[in-house]
């Protein structure tokens, strides 16, 4: 039989985590000053006239570099629990982590060969 009372904490967390952002947006919408004018619609509101076009294209290489960094940064988050419980989990988990690292190394070699790590 499906017992709903076991999920009371989950539903409370879900409701609270949904209400807090809604309240934050509602309060900021009420309390924020409303200013309209030509300066509001300009590219920069720092008092300096913008020079050139606001639509400047960046090279895709910068985004690729950032994406590769994020992938290998998140990888450490997955390896940390394995490292902390290595003595309890045994050899099978070590093999899984080793395969995971090999896949990441293959991705790094691929990105390197494609030139995604070049910064010029």
Automatic annotation (TrEMBL):
The chain crosses the membrane at residues 12-34, 62-83, 89-112. Keywords: Chloroplast, Membrane, NAD, NADP, Plastid, Plastoquinone, Quinone, Thylakoid, Translocase, Transmembrane, Transmembrane helix, Transport. It is a multi-pass membrane protein. One of its GO terms (biological process) is photosynthesis, light reaction. It is an enzyme of class 7 (translocase). Signal peptide: none annotated. GO terms for cellular component: chloroplast thylakoid membrane; mitochondrial membrane; NADH dehydrogenase complex. It catalyses: a ubiquinone + NADH + 5 H(+)(in) = a ubiquinol + NAD(+) + 4 H(+)(out); a plastoquinone + NADH + (n+1) H(+)(in) = a plastoquinol + NAD(+) + n H(+)(out); a plastoquinone + NADPH + (n+1) H(+)(in) = a plastoquinol + NADP(+) + n H(+)(out). One of its GO terms (molecular function) is oxidoreductase activity, acting on NAD(P)H, quinone or similar compound as acceptor. NDH shuttles electrons from NAD(P)H:plastoquinone, via FMN and iron-sulfur (Fe-S) centers, to quinones in the photosynthetic chain and possibly in a chloroplast respiratory chain. The immediate electron acceptor for the enzyme in this species is believed to be plastoquinone. Couples the redox reaction to proton translocation, and thus conserves the redox energy in a proton gradient. Core subunit of the mitochondrial membrane respiratory chain NADH dehydrogenase (Complex I) that is believed to belong to the minimal assembly required for catalysis. Complex I functions in the transfer of electrons from NADH to the respiratory chain. The immediate electron acceptor for the enzyme is believed to be ubiquinone. Belongs to the complex I subunit 3 family. This is NAD(P)H-quinone oxidoreductase subunit 3, chloroplastic. It comes from Stuckenia pectinata. The lineage of its organism: Eukaryota, Viridiplantae, Streptophyta, Embryophyta, Tracheophyta.
């Amino acid at each position: 039989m499906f017992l709903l009372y076991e999920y009371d904490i989950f539903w409370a967390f879900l409701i609270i985590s949904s209400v807090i952002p809604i309240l934050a947006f509602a309060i900021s919408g009420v309390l924020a000053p409303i200013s309209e004018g030509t300066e509001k619609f300009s590219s920069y509101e720092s008092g300096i006239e913008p020079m050139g076009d606001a639509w400047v294209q960046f090279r895709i290489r910068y985004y690729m570099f950032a994406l590769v960094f994020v992938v290998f940064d998140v990888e450490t988050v997955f390896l940390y629990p394995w490292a902390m419980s290595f003595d309890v989990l045994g050899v099978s988990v070590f093999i899984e982590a080793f395969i995971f690292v090999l896949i990441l190394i293959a991705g790094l070699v691929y990105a390197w060969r494609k030139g995604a790590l070049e910064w010029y």
